[in-house]
Specification:
The protein is of the alpha+beta class and 155 residues long. It is built from five helices and seven strands; from the N terminus they run αββββαββαβαα. It is globular and about 50 Å long.
């Protein structure tokens, strides 16, 4: 399910965004810092400080995860079914290992959200459709100026 481009976005993203729904049908979206692809169709996300996400997944396991490069303004969204892996589960240390590589033990991992992907779609900023000649390099330059990473070019 994950092609090389999707894996690149997953691996290069600083944050991913996990969307869940509570018992009243109210959505919740929260950033996650430690995540990785697991095989070709699963994601692992560390539950560092996510009691709402954990509670919501127990109620409704349907989730959506997005990865976006804020400079290129492209990425992917993955929809799937989430489960919770607790530290007391027999396979916890196995699935925790790639997340520990990411966190280097700096964050407590209270559990792991394991998402079995059932669809993946690209995310593309509307600028690319509105301005067909827009290149990724130009978009990156514009975003870097917008976010204050670089200053305006002298006229």
């Amino acid at each position: 399910m994950f092609n090389q481009e999707a894996l690149t976005y997953i691996n290069q993203s600083v944050l991913c965004w996990l969307a869940t729904v509570d018992a009243d049908g109210i959505p919740n979206v929260s950033p996650k810092e430690a995540f990785t692809a697991y095989g070709n169709s699963e994601l692992l996300i560390a539950n560092i400080a996510s009691p709402s996400s954990a509670r919501n997944i127990l109620i409704n396991p349907n989730v959506c995860v997005s990865f976006v490069d804020i400079f290129v303004q492209k990425g992917y969204k993955v929809k799937g079914i989430a489960s919770l892996i607790k530290p007391s589960d027999a396979n916890f240390s196995l699935v925790e290992a790639p997340l520990l590589t990411i966190t280097q033990g700096k964050f407590p991992i209270h559990g792991i959200f394991r998402i079995q992907a059932n669809s993946i779609q690209p995310i593309v900023a509307p600028s690319y459709w509105l301005f067909p000649s827009l290149t990724e390099d130009a978009q990156v330059q514009s975003a870097m100026q917008t976010y204050g990473v670089i200053g305006e070019s002298p006229a």
